Backbone:
C-alpha cells in the first residue's frame, strides 16, 4: 500500500500534524514512531508550559506560532477534554540595573501581539507571588501564560487523529529514505518498508538527520539537555504563576512553576550535547538547577520534597527558528524541524499551518464527518461522593484504587489500555492516567498495574516493559515459580 | 451514613492489634478498613523469620505473626472490609472510603485509629543522577515481586541503603540464586538492625560499604551498571574512589516515610522529625478522638513494638468511646523533649492524670554512641541515668516512666530525654 502522507515521529508536532491532516478527504495518513508509544521523546520531558509569547524574536515564525498556539490552546483543551489553565507567567528581575530588560521583553511581547501584559512593581509582584526572593525589583506579568500536561495534549491529539483514520506504527524506526522514479518515497524501517507520496519530518532531535538525507541546504540540530526536578504535591501551593528569571542567550532559564496536576516543577538547565539519546541527569546539572532556582524564589522546598528528576532534550536548530516548509529539491518532503521551546505551545498552530499548506498544495477537501472532539479518561476525583458512588455501582473497577498516591483506580487504567492507541507499558499507563506518577513513584502500584496489563492484553509478566524496548520489569519466575 | 464506635484505617499489624484491644476493652462496633485483598499488611510479604521474639517468645515468619492477630479478629468477629481505600478523614471523624462492592461511602466514627503504615523513599528524593531505566526498585517492591508474585527482577544486584528491608532482600535474592554484589550506605553507619547485617550480609559474604553512594546509573532502557563512590564527611562523593558494578537490578532501601496523607487531610498536627502525628500519652493526635499507632506514627524496627503500641491505642480509643466521644480538656500537660543526640520522642506530651502506671517513651538517636548514657530530666533534675554500651540510629530506644513518681514530683513543666557522655 502507498500512503499519501507518512509522518515521522509521534511527538507533539507529529501528532498535531496527523490530527490536522485527518480532516481531509481521500488522504491516507500514517505516523511512524520509533518508540513504543506516542510522546516518547522530547515531548515527554519539558516544562509543561504554555508560553505567552513575549520571548521569541519579533517577526519570527516562532513568535507567530507561539502566539497562535497560545490562543488556540483553550478551545483545543476543551475539545480534547484535557486540563489547561492560564496561571500567568512572571519574568522576575532581581537586579535593579536589569529592570530595563523587563521593558525590552514587554515591548517584544507587544510587537509579537501578546495581550494584557503588565510591568509590576516589587510590591505588586510580591503580593501576587509571596514566595519570590527578597531581592525582587519588579516583574513582567503575562496573564495569558498557562500550564498543561504535555503527555495528555500529545496523547489526545494522536488519539483524535487515530479515530479520524490515521494509522500509527510503533517500534518502527525509519532508517533510510529514497524517492523512486515515480516520485514515491520508500522508507526503510526496522519493521519493513513503508511507501508514501509525501513525508512529514517531525523527528525531533533527529529532524536534521532526515532533512540532511534529502536536502541540499543542511541543518544542524543540537540536543540541548535540560535537567528538571519535580516536587511533591504537598508543595503545590508554593507558586501560583510560572516564575521565570530574565532570559539569557541559552534560553529562558530555570523556571519554577506549578504543574497542571498540582506539583511544582523546577528546571531546566541548558547543556549542549552531541548524543541524541543522552537523557541522563547529572549531579552537576541538578546542583546547578537548585542553585539557579533558588535565586528568584526564597526557601524553595527542594531536598526531600523532590519526587523525581529527569532530563529532556530540546531540538535546538542553529538559528533558533522553527523550520516548517517544503524542501524544494526533494519533492514531497516536508520539514517540521528545530521544534524546541515554545514547541509544545506552538504545536496546535504548527499542525494547523502544515494542514493548510498540504490543503493548498494537494487541493484537499475537508471531510464532512470529521470528529474534532474526544472524551478524555474520566477523572473521578472531580466527582462528588454520590456521583462517584453511582459510577462504581455501574463499573466496579472505579472502586478499586491501584495507585494510592494519585488515587487512580482500575477503571481509569482499563480505559487507558482499551481506548484508541491504548497503553501497553507502565509508562504508557502512567502518562495517560498518572498511576505511578505520585510520591512513591510506582513502588506500590507497579506490580498491580503489571497484573492488569497481563490480564487485559495477555502480555506475559516477563515481557511487560516500563517503556518498550528492553525495559522489562521482571526477568523470570523465581525458583520453581509460584502459581 | 453508617456509624461505628471505632474505625481503624489499615489492617496491618498496627490496625489488627488496635482492633483486638479495643474489642477486649468492650467496644462493640469496630470496623477495620484495609486497602489490600487480605489482612496482615506488609507482613504478608515478609516471609523470613524473626518476628514475635518479644510478644510470643518464639521466632515466627511475617505471615505467621500476622495470622496470630488475624485469628483473634476472626474469633472476636470484628468487622473488616478488604480492597477498601479510605479517601478522606474529616476533622469531625467522618471517614470516606470506597471499594468495588459498596461504592463510595461515608462512615461516622466515634473514634478513628490511624494505622496506615509507611512507604519507602523513592529514587527521586535521593537525587541519584543518571538515566531512569527499568530495573530500579524499592526493596519492598522487589520483596513483593519475589515473595508474593513469584518473579525475579534480575540476577545481578546492587543495593543502595542498608535499611532492614534492603538487608533482608540481599539475603532473599541470594537464596533465589542472584548475585548481590554490594550494599552501599551513604551514612557511616547502617540504617538497619545489627542482627540483619550479620544474618543477611555477613553470613553470605555480601560486602557492606558504609559512607558510599551511587553517583551514576547506566542503561537507557534497562539498568546495566552503577558507579559507587565513597563520600566524605560532607556526604559528597570523593573523586578517585569510583567503582563500577555491572548489574541488572538496583534495590533502594533508603528510609521509610510514614504515610500520613489522610492525617494531614484531616488537619492532624505533624512532627517534622518523625513525619508522623504529634501524639500525647494516650497516642491521641491533635484532633480529639483520632489516635495513631505503628509505622504511621513513627517507623519501627520490630513489629512486636508496633503491636504493643497499637494495643495501647486501641485501649485509649475505647476509653474515648466510653466517655461519650467527648474531648476532655487536659489538666496538666507535661512537654516531652528530645535533646543532645535523641531526635524525637513518642509521645510528645503527657497528662499524668491520664497516663497508665507505666508509660513507654520511645525515641531514636541521631548517630552511633558507644558507652553513653540515656538521661531523663524532670524539669532540671536528673531522674534516670541508664548506661548503654551502644546506640545507633537503626535501633529504637525506650525509657519507661512511672506515674507514681511523676505524681510525687508534682507540677512538672517538662521532661527531657538526653543522650550524654555521662
Residues:
Amino acid at each position: 500500500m502507498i500512503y499519501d502522507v507518512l509522518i515521522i515521529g509521534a511527538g507533539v508536532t507529529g501528532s498535531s500534524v496527523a490530527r490536522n491532516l485527518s480532516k481531509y478527504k481521500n488522504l491516507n495518513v500514517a505516523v511512524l514512531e520509533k518508540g513504543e508509544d506516542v510522546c516518547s521523546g522530547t515531548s515527554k520531558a519539558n516544562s509543561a508550559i504554555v508560553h505567552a509569547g513575549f520571548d521569541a524574536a519579533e517577526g519570527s515564525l516562532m513568535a507567530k506560532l507561539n502566539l497562535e498556539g497560545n490562543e488556540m490552546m483553550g478551545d483545543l483543551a476543551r475539545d480534547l477534554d484535557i486540563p489547561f489553565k492560564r496561571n500567568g507567567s512572571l519574568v522576575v528581575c532581581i537586579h535593579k540595573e536589569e529592570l530595563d530588560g523587563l521593558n525590552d521583553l514587554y515591548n517584544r511581547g507587544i510587537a509579537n501581539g501578546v495581550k494584557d501584559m503588565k510591568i509590576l512593581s516589587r510590591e505588586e509582584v510580591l503580593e501576587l507571588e509571596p514566595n519570590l526572593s527578597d531581592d525582587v525589583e519588579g516583574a513582567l506579568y503575562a496573564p495569558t501564560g498557562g500550564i498543561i500536561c504535555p503527555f495528555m495534549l500529545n496523547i489526545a491529539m494522536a488519539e483524535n487523529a487515530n479515530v479520524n483514520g490515521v494509522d500509527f506504527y510503533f517500534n518502527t524506526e525509519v532508517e533510510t529514505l529514497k524517492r523512486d522514479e515515480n516520485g514515491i518515497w520508500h522508507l526503510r524501517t526496522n519493521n519493513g518498508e513503508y511507501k508514501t507520496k509525501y513525508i512529514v519530518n517531525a523527528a525531533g532531535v533527529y529532524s536534521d538527520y532526515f532533512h540532511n538525507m534529502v536536502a541540499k541546504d543542511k541543518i544542524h540540530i543540537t540536543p540541548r539537555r535540560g535537567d528538571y526536578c519535580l516536587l511533591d504535591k504537598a508543595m503545590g501551593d508554593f507558586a501560583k504563576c510560572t516564575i521565570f528569571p530574565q532570559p539569557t542567550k541559552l534560553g529562558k532559564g530555570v523556571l519554577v512553576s506549578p504543574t497542571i496536576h498540582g506539583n511544582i516543577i523546577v528546571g531546566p538547565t541548558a547543556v549542549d550535547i552531541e548524543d541524541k539519546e543522552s537523557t541522563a541527569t547529572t549531579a552537576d546539572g541538578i546542583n546547578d538547577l537548585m542553585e539557579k532556582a533558588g535565586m528568584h524564589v526564597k526557601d524553595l522546598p527542594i531536598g526531600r520534597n523532590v519526587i523525581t528528576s529527569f532530563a529532556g532534550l530540546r531540538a535546538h536548530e542553529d538559528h533558533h527558528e522553527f523550520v516548517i516548509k517544503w524542501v524544494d529539491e526533494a519533492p514531497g518532503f516536508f520539514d517540521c524541524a528545530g521544534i524546541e521551546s515554545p514547541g509544545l505551545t506552538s504545536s496546535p498552530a504548527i499542525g494547523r499551518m502544515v494542514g493548510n499548506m498540504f490543503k493548498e498544495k494537494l487541493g484537499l477537501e475537508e471531510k464532512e464527518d470529521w470528529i474534532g472532539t474526544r472524551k478524555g479518561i474520566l477523572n473521578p476525583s472531580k466527582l462528588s461522593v454520590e456521583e462517584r458512588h453511582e459510577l462504581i455501582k455501574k463499573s466496579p473497577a472505579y472502586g478499586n484504587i491501584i495507585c494510592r498516591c494519585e488515587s487512580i483506580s482500575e477503571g481509569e487504567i482499563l480505559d487507558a489500555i482499551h481506548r484508541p492507541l491504548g497503553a501497553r507499558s507502565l509508562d504508557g499507563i502512567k502518562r495517560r492516567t498518572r498511576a505511578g506518577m505520585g510520591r512513591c513513584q510506582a513502588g506500590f502500584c507497579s506490580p498491580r498495574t503489571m497484573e492488569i496489563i497481563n490480564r487485559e492484553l495477555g502480555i506475559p509478566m516477563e515481557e511487560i516493559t516500563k517503556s518498550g524496548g528492553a525495559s522489562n520489569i521482571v526477568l523470570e519466575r523465581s525458583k520453581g515459580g509460584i502459581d | 451514613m453508617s456509624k461505628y464506635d471505632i474505625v481503624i484505617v489499615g489492617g496491618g499489624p498496627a490496625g489488627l492489634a488496635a482492633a483486638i484491644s479495643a474489642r477486649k476493652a468492650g467496644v462493640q462496633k469496630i470496623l477495620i478498613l484495609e486497602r489490600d485483598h487480605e489482612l496482615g499488611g506488609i507482613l504478608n510479604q515478609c516471609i523470613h523469620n524473626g518476628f514475635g521474639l518479644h510478644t510470643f517468645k518464639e521466632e515466627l515468619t511475617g505471615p505467621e505473626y500476622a495470622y496470630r492477630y488475624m485469628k483473634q479478629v476472626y474469633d472476636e468477629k470484628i468487622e473488616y472490609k478488604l480492597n477498601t481505600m479510605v479517601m478522606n478523614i474529616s476533622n469531625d471523624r467522618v471517614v470516606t472510603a470506597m471499594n468495588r462492592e459498596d461504592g463510595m461511602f461515608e462512615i461516622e466514627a466515634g473514634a478513628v485509629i490511624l494505622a496506615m503504615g509507611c512507604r519507602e523513599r523513592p529514587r527521586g528524593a535521593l537525587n541519584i543522577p543518571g538515566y531512569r531505566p527499568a530495573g530500579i526498585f524499592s526493596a519492598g517492591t522487589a520483596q513483593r515481586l519475589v515473595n508474593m508474585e513469584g518473579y525475579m527482577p534480575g540476577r545481578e544486584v546492587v543495593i543502595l541503603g542498608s535499611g532492614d528491608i534492603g538487608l533482608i532482600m540481599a539475603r532473599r535474592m541470594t537464596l533465589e540464586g542472584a548475585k548481590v554484589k554490594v550494599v552501599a550506605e551513604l551514612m557511616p553507619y547502617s540504617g538497619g538492625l545489627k542482627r540483619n547485617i550479620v544474618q543477611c550480609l555477613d553470613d553470605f559474604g555480601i560486602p557492606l560499604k558504609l559512607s558510599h553512594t551511587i553517583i551514576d546509573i547506566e542503561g537507557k532502557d534497562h539498568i546495566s551498571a552503577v558507579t559507587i563512590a565513597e563520600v566524605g564527611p560532607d556526604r559528597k562523593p570523593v573523586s578517585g574512589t569510583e567503582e563500577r558494578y555491572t548489574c541488572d537490578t538496583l534495590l533502594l532501601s533508603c528510609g521509610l516515610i510514614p504515610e500520613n496523607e489522610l492525617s494531614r487531610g484531616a488537619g492532624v498536627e505533624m512532627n517534622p522529625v518523625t513525619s508522623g502525628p504529634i501524639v500525647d500519652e494516650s497516642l491521641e493526635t491533635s484532633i480529639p478522638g483520632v489516635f495513631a499507632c505503628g509505622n504511621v506514627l513513627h517507623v519501627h524496627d520490630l513489629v512486636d513494638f508496633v503491636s504493643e503500641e497499637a494495643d495501647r491505642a486501641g485501649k485509649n480509643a475505647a476509653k474515648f468511646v466510653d466517655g461519650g466521644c467527648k474531648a476532655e480538656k487536659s489538666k496538666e500537660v507535661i512537654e516531652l523533649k528530645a535533646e543532645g543526640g535523641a531526635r524525637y520522642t513518642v509521645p510528645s506530651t503527657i497528662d499524668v492524670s491520664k497516663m497508665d502506671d507505666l508509660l513507654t517513651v520511645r525515641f531514636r538517636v541521631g548517630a552511633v554512641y558507644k558507652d553513653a548514657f540515656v538521661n531523663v530530666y524532670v524539669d532540671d533534675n536528673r531522674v534516670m541515668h541508664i548506661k548503654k554500651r551502644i546506640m545507633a540510629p537503626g535501633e529504637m530506644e525506650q525509657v519507661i516512666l512511672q506515674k507514681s513518681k511523676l505524681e510525687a514530683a508534682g507540677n512538672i513543666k517538662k521532661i527531657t530525654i538526653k543522650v550524654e557522655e555521662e
The CA atoms of residues 398 and 411 of chain A lie 4 Å apart.
